[in-house]
Amino acid sequence: MTTTSPRPQIFKGVVVKMAMADTVTVRVDRYVKHPKYKKYFVRSKKYLVHDPGNTVAIGDRVTIVACRPISRRKHFKLYVAR
């Protein structure tokens, strides 16, 4: 019997803040359909992302991936394609 591990969450977003050391804030947008009016609108959520060395700048489009908890609110890190 083989067990499969779940894939980690991967999101694409925009860097909106760099006020902390080794941490950036990334805004992730998603489209949601209104249940009654059937119109699509944008919902946003901000995540704290671990960025060792502060390698990105505000306005950069980045991909983030879920990881082990790094601090109380930081559970994502920058995705680096290998």
UniProtKB/TrEMBL annotation:
This is Small ribosomal subunit protein uS17. Part of the 30S ribosomal subunit. One of the primary rRNA binding proteins, it binds specifically to the 5'-end of 16S ribosomal RNA. NCBIfam families: PRK05610.1, uS17_bact. One of its GO terms (cellular component) is cytosolic small ribosomal subunit. One of its GO terms (biological process) is translation. It holds the Pfam family Ribosomal_S17. It comes from the Bacteria. One of its GO terms (molecular function) is structural constituent of ribosome. Keywords: Ribonucleoprotein, Ribosomal protein, RNA-binding, rRNA-binding. InterPro entries: NA-bd_OB-fold (IPR012340), Ribosomal_uS17 (IPR000266), Ribosomal_uS17_bact/chlr (IPR019984).
